[in-house]
Amino acid sequence: MSLLRRAVARLRPAVAYAPEVDGEPDPGEVVWAWVPYEEDASQGKDRPVLLLAQQETQPDSPWLGLMLSSQDHDRDAADEARYGRHWMDVGSGGWDREGRPSEVRLDRLLVLPAETIRREGAALDRAVFEEVVAAAREFHTLD
């Protein structure tokens, strides 16, 4: 088990859909954050992230999230799965200016420092959020 999975398993953050239009990050919202590349953590890119839970109750505590992509991974799903990457369609929303459909990556749980999260993009529909969380539980320990 990776160090990240062990740390998350110990903290067992409570995942609950709770978006509020208040300018503050909330579970269920898609926000923007700098996400490091897997192959080189010193590099990365700004991308939309679905927030699942905050690790602790302090406002500056890190957030757990899953990155989104507007690329269609359904076309190469078998190849993606072979490399351990698993995606789920979540539709389109206010996080993408062009209104493109998005997919969320289920197998890569991000730990984001609160200060790196920027702008409220939009909230996922509650039913879609619940489906994502259920699917992500196949890869991560989440309450």
Entry summary:
The chain is of the alpha+beta class and 143 residues long. The chain has 3 helices and 6 strands.
Structural class: alpha+beta
In total, the number of strands is 6
Look at the structure and give the mean pLDDT.
87
Distance between the termini: 18 Å
Number of contiguous helices: 3
Bin the strand percentage. Answer: 25-35%
**Biggest sheet, open or closed, and with what strands and sense?**
6 strands, antiparallel
Question: Which bin fits the share of residues in helices?
Answer: 10-25%
Major sheet: arrangement of strands: 4-5-3-2-1-6
Q: What are the segments in which pLDDT stays under 50 over at least 5 consecutive residues?
A: none
Radius of gyration: 14 Å
Order of helices and strands: HEEEHEEEH
Please identify the oligomeric state. single chain
Structural shape: globular
Can you describe what's shown?
With 143 residues, the protein is of the alpha+beta class. 18% of the residues lie in helices and 34% in strands. The chain has a six-stranded antiparallel β-sheet with strand order 4-5-3-2-1-6, covered by helices on one side. Strand 1 and strand 2 (44-54) form a beta hairpin. The model has no long low-confidence stretch (mean pLDDT 87).
